[in-house]
Amino acid sequence: MGSSNRFEGAFWGIDVGGSYTKIGLIADDRFRLVDTIPTGEDCHPVDLLEEVSRLILANDPMPAGVGLGTAGLIDRSAGGVIRFSPNLPLWNGVNAGAILRDLLKVPVVVDNDCNVFAIGALNSRLIPSEGLWLFVTLGTGIGGTIINQGSIVYGTGYSGEFGHMTVQEGGIPCPCGSDGCWERYAGKQSLEWYYKRLNGIQASPREISNLASLGNVQACEAFREYGRWVGIGLANLANCFSPMGFFMGGGLSATLNHFEPSAQQEYKRRCKHGWNVTLLENSSVSGAFGAASMASRQC
């Protein structure tokens, strides 16, 4: 988009992911993706936020507000301090909200990336405003949001860390400090491992999905095992919350057709709740859109 200053007074959204950071804005009731920047574990947060701020100001010298979503425990009461982020360790303790407010001189709101995604879905009326629903994102890690009567339930501030509930005692160590966490068995790396264990070949989830679509036996078996663990986690959540149903997003959710049969079978074996899982459109800009929506509501 360059530095045309085409927009002024827009609400901006920043989605900081483990691989990429996406930046976009809402103007004239439309969302536009402006740019995508590589992130990576070694990306210094201050450097990234400075780059993002320059990009925003180059396109909008007077933004109305900015929303930022990122994985981890976000202290909203402290203005957007990232208390702990297992998959982005350099962000631990960073006051992302204060840094952006200082750089942009505008209101800034920060929240967990899954909550931000859910806010966008609520604004778009993809998630009902009545009843108790659970939103789960499947990606590098597993995120979660509890939605009750159209509002996010935060508990003491950090509820929804579904990916770090234990599903296997003494299981695979997790960067969070525990072991046997759900995201160690139903995250991106686990699907890759299930496939590699069968034939020794390293492949991405997209490649495994393409192979499964062609009937590749090892790829189909990898998804069967992956789905079993997804089902275990969803059953645990259903037994705890008794929700009206689940909404699912994140990169791996796009492969639901490959793992839903085994996930549903395991789910029904472990709980008495009905299987009600709705796939939200897996748009690559959903996080940035949700962050901009959050800014439009709270800034």
Strand neighbour order, sheet with most strands:
3-2-1-4-8
Looking at this structure, what is the CATH superfamily of the largest domain?
A: ATPase, nucleotide binding domain
Mean pLDDT: 93
Number of strands: 13
Q: Radius of gyration in whole Å, from Cα?
A: 19 Å
End-to-end gap? 25 Å
Contiguous uncertain segments of 5+ residues: none
Structural class: alpha/beta
The CATH topology of the largest domain, please?
A: Nucleotidyltransferase, domain 5
Give the overall form. Answer: globular
- Give me the number of helical elements: 9
Helix proportion of residues, in percent? 25-40%
Major sheet summary line: 5 strands, mixed
CATH class of the largest domain equals Alpha Beta
Into which percentage range does the β-strand content fall? 15-25%
Name given to the CATH architecture of the largest domain: 2-Layer Sandwich
Q: Write down the domain tally.
A: 2
Order of helices and strands: EEEHEEEEHEHEEEHHHHEHEH
